[in-house]
Specification:
Radius of gyration: 18 Å
Structural class: mainly alpha
Number of domains: 1
Shape: globular
Strand content: under 5%
Distance between the termini: 18 Å
Number of helices: 6
Order of helices and strands: HEEHHHHH
């Protein structure tokens, strides 16, 4: 069975958006006079917006990749049992045993969920114990992860 999905499109959108985040962040740190680094503002939040796009589509790509590969290898009925499972469980079902990849996948899943399903933050009640996810910081690791998973699963 060979299934067709928008895998390449999802991955390309994620990679293009992550590259734009890097370009924008590099541009924010322009060299000023006397060797001083000048951090420019991003009032349109372009870096953040592209980070959201990268994370959303990296996750869409990963979900689609896992669905296609699992359906091809395990069959539709077996995949149906995995459908609502976490990405890490799907990877394990597909034979991925690298605990580093599994841990990075869990981190990506949690970071993506945190960013994409944002809860309002009460700044007055905020404590130092609440970790904040910075979307821009998660882009490059997410893209590297989905590329590695694609290689592990034999996808281009």
């Amino acid at each position: 069975m060979r299934l067709v999905a928008n895998l390449r499109v999802f991955r390309a959108i994620a990679e293009d958006a992550a590259a734009e985040v890097k370009r924008l962040q590099d541009g924010e740190r322009a060299a000023g006079s006397g060797g001083i680094t000048v951090v420019q503002r991003d009032p349109q939040q372009r870096s953040f917006k592209h980070s959201l796009i990268a994370l959303a589509f990296a996750g869409s790509y990963l979900e689609a990749l896992l669905r296609v590969v699992a359906t091809e290898r395990l069959g539709r009925e077996c995949y149906a049992k995995l459908d609502r499972q976490k990405w890490e469980n799907k990877l394990k079902a597909l034979g991925v045993k690298d605990e580093g990849v599994i841990a990075r996948c869990e981190r990506f899943r949690k970071a993506r969920n945190e960013v994409m399903h944002e809860e309002p933050l009460d700044l007055e009640a905020q404590t130092s114990r609440v970790p904040l996810v910075v979307a821009q910081a998660e882009c490059e690791p997410a893209i590297e992860l989905v590329r590695e998973i694609a290689r592990l699963l034999g996808e281009p």
